[in-house]
Design a protein that fits this description.
globular; 10 helices; 6 strands; 231 residues; 11% strand; alpha/beta
């Protein structure tokens, strides 16, 4: 058998011995997108970060500086999921640290949500696509198991999908973000809301009623109220 075939055999076999082997040899998992990452594989976010930084489940591993896994409270009540890292994120290894991220922090602070205590932020994919292009379906699929494990570990009360790519990548939702934003939806038993991406707000600076910034203000107030209700 080739190395890849051995790993595929390892993760597809359902015998007890091989399942135990999969647990003690997690370093095999990131090598190929054909090899599944079963739920419960990781016990800590640091393990996910280690794998993402040596992952080659898609071609983006060839061009990254750092994998961008997440930031914030690992037990946060709110999880924010964006699209993909940009240049600033690739350089620092942290999500949402550029202008869009700074705006997002201000939006959250406006309703007294703190990114160190109330929020955990991550992206659908962990490596920057060349020239900040939209990630492909294959790239999202290859990275999705890591994101599902992040959601399981954080176990947030609320998930916010920032932008259409995050929403579609995880839920398969095909409606445009402007049509569904601000609406509470249920996904996998979790309460979720699609919201506009802060980068979109930067391109549309108007604060008039009905503008993107005005809509975001309505949505983030709704999130704050829902969290208060749940707590």
């Amino acid at each position: 058998m080739t190395s890849s075939e051995e790993q595929l055999s390892l993760f597809q076999d359902t015998t007890t011995d091989l399942e135990a082997s999969a647990v003690v040899q997690p370093e095999l998992i990131p090598t190929d997108a054909k090899i599944p990452i079963p739920p419960g594989t990781y016990s800590a976010m640091t393990e996910i970060a280690q794998h993402c930084n040596k992952c080659h489940r898609c071609g983006l591993g060839e061009t990254r500086t750092h994998a961008v896994v997440g930031r914030g409270n690992l037990q946060a009540p709110i999880m924010i999921i964006g699209e993909a890292p940009g240049q600033n994120e690739d350089e620092t290894g942290l999500p949402f640290v550029g202008k869009a991220g700074q705006l997002l922090d201000k939006i959250l602070a406006s309703v007294k949500l703190d990114t160190d205590s109330d929020i955990y932020i991550c992206n659908v994919i962990k490596c920057r696509p060349p020239n900040n292009r939209v990630p492909t379906t294959d790239e999202i699929s290859a990275c999705k198991p890591y994101l599902l494990e992040q959601i399981r570990l954080v176990n947030p009360k609320v998930i916010l999908f920032t932008g259409a790519t995050a929403l579609k990548g995880l839920t398969g939702e095909k409606r445009g973000i402007t049509k569904i934003r601000g609406n509470w939806i249920e996904w996998e038993g979790r309460l979720c809301m699609p919201i506009l991406h802060p980068a979109y707000l930067l391109r549309n600076p108007s604060r008039e009623r009905g503008s993107p910034k005005w809509l975001m203000w309505q949505d983030i107030q709704s999130v704050r109220a829902k969290l208060d209700e749940m707590q």
